[in-house]
Design brief:
Layout: E1 3-7, E2 14-18, E3 23-25, E4 32-34, H1 35-48, E5 50-51, E6 54-55, H2 56-69, H3 73-86, H4 91-102, H5 112-129, H6 134-204, H7 210-223, H8 231-292
Antiparallel strand pairs: 1-2, 3-4, 5-6
Length: 293
């Protein structure tokens, strides 16, 4: 026969007794007692514990009023905690904390540490009734097991969603790296051409071309010797100087744009590595939980 909670009518010690027997002897004070009276004594103790003039039943009723009627979960939690402190053998205080923490078993996206704290309160409620009232124990355990199943299901769906988002983010980063790398290659090619042109222009300023000598000879033949023969050379130098200045600005701009893209690609590559590690971690978690759920 299952044992039920009782309290010795003589010494007041909490007992676990067989309710099928009419009488028993207290193992603490060796006093015989009537089973029914000892059980009623325990129930009376639970229902009439008074702290600051308020009984356990009143605290439980007030907690329900605050929670269901006024929507004040914090105050309801405080009252359930007071019941747990003054009547730890009453399952309703423990279960009230479970209900508050789970928002009547509707809150399923919660952390593992929070679940562990809630599970502790649920187990305390189970301990209070598993021997004294198996019917209530079965109802509570069924409700709790159903809730845990929903947590696992919802949590796994959330992790799958996180994985999908992580994969999409990884693909976005890879596409951006590819695009910036292509643009960086184009800039590098343009930069190489501009640098070659600048180098050639700089050398040409001090190496007059054949056309400058031809023009100088013609002018010399027509007008005679004089400074006028230097006009083609000066004009050529001015032209090359202006061209070199423009090429210098172009080279500087191309280098800046290439370096900026290079820095962005480097940052994206680091971000990509982090995203890959995140994906690996999520996949490992899904594999592990899939084997253990």
């Amino acid at each position: 026969m299952p044992l039920v909670a009782a309290k010795c009518t003589q010494c007041g010690q909490n007992l676990q007794i067989d309710d099928a027997k009419e009488a028993a002897v207290c193992p603490y004070c060796d006093t015989p007692f009537i089973t029914e009276k000892a059980i009623n004594n325990y129930k009376l103790e639970i229902g009439n514990v008074v702290v600051e003039g308020v009984s356990v039943e009143t605290k439980l009723n007030n907690a329900e009023v605050f929670y269901k009627m006024h929507g004040n979960a914090n105050r309801a939690r405080e009252l359930f905690e007071e019941v747990v402190d003054i009547a730890p053998a009453d399952w309703r205080g423990w279960w009230g904390l479970v209900r508050i923490s789970t928002q009547e078993f509707t809150r399923v996206r919660i952390g593992s540490e929070h679940v562990a704290r809630i599970e502790y309160n649920a187990n305390c409620a189970f301990n209070c009734v598993k021997d004294s009232d198996p019917a209530i124990f079965n109802v509570l355990q069924e409700q709790w097991n159903s809730y845990l199943a929903r947590i696992n299901s919802e949590w796994r769906e959330g992790v799958v969603d996180d994985l999908s988002q992580a994969v999409r983010e990884k693909e976005r980063i890879e596409a951006e790296i590819k695009d910036k790398s292509r643009r960086m290659q184009d800039l590098s090619a343009s930069l190489t051409t501009a640098e070659n042109d600048l180098r050639h222009c700089s050398m040409s300023k001090f190496t007059p071309g054949a056309w400058a000598y031809v023009v100088s000879i013609v002018l010399c033949a027509v007008y005679g010797l004089g400074l006028i023969v230097l006009i083609p050379l000066v004009a050529r130098y001015i032209y090359l100087w202006d061209k070199g200045k423009k090429l210098g600005v172009q080279v500087k701009d191309l280098r800046l744009r290439r370096d900026t893209l290079s820095s962005e690609v480097y940052s994206l590559q680091n971000e990509l590595e982090k995203q890959k590690k995140k994906i690996d971690s999520i996949e490992h978690t899904l594999k592990y939980t899939g084997e253990n759920i």
